[in-house]
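Researcher: Quick test of sequence recovery. Tokens follow.
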């Protein structure tokens, strides 16, 4: 039954997603593709939409996939399943925080997880960039419009950082990306 699949699929994501939403994207990708709920392109688009809408990416993706597969109940079940482990862990941590935070073994676990999370986020970013720039369906081909758009965005982001000595805000980056996307793909 779809509701059980949604619950246990997204419960697995919620249980093993360390490092926030970007660290969870590979897990979500694995679950969504293994069940056949979305294809690769739709998932990539939904990651972009989830990033540009309010709320955590992981919850937005779970809600969308749940809704597309099981309607309103599917959305509710997938969303609850993905947040349930975090909720229970926070309750547990709050109960033992004073002694746990001072424990050297717990600190060692946190220090050991940090490089893993950084690697997962970096690998996900590289995977998404390459997936957006290269098509493998009919052999290897370069998506010229995507490459030009990516280069324009990179030049603008680096230029703003160099000139103003600060980064462009994420909101302005999303708006700029949307406008450039309309210019590149809309006309």
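Model:
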């Amino acid at each position: 039954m779809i509701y059980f699949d949604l619950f246990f699929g997204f419960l697995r994501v919620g249980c093993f997603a360390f490092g926030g939403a970007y660290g969870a994207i590979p897990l979500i990708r694995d679950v969504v593709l293994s069940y056949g709920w979305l294809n690769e392109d739709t998932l990539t688009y939904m990651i972009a939409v989830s990033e540009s809408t309010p709320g955590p990416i992981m919850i937005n993706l779970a809600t969308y996939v749940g809704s597309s597969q099981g309607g309103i109940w599917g959305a509710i079940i997938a969303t609850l399943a993905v947040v349930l482990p975090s909720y229970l862990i926070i309750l547990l941590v709050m109960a033992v925080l004073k002694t746990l935070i001072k424990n050297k073994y717990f600190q060692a676990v946190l220090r050991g997880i940090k490089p893993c999370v950084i690697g997962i986020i970096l690998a996900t970013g590289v995977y998404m960039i390459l997936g957006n720039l290269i098509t493998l369906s009919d052999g290897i081909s370069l998506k010229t419009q995507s490459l030009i758009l990516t280069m324009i965005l990179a030049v603008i982001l680096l230029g703003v950082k160099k000139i103003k000595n600060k980064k462009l805000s994420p909101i302005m980056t999303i708006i700029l990306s949307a406008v450039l996307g309309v210019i590149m793909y809309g006309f």
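Strands lie at 134-135, 141-142.
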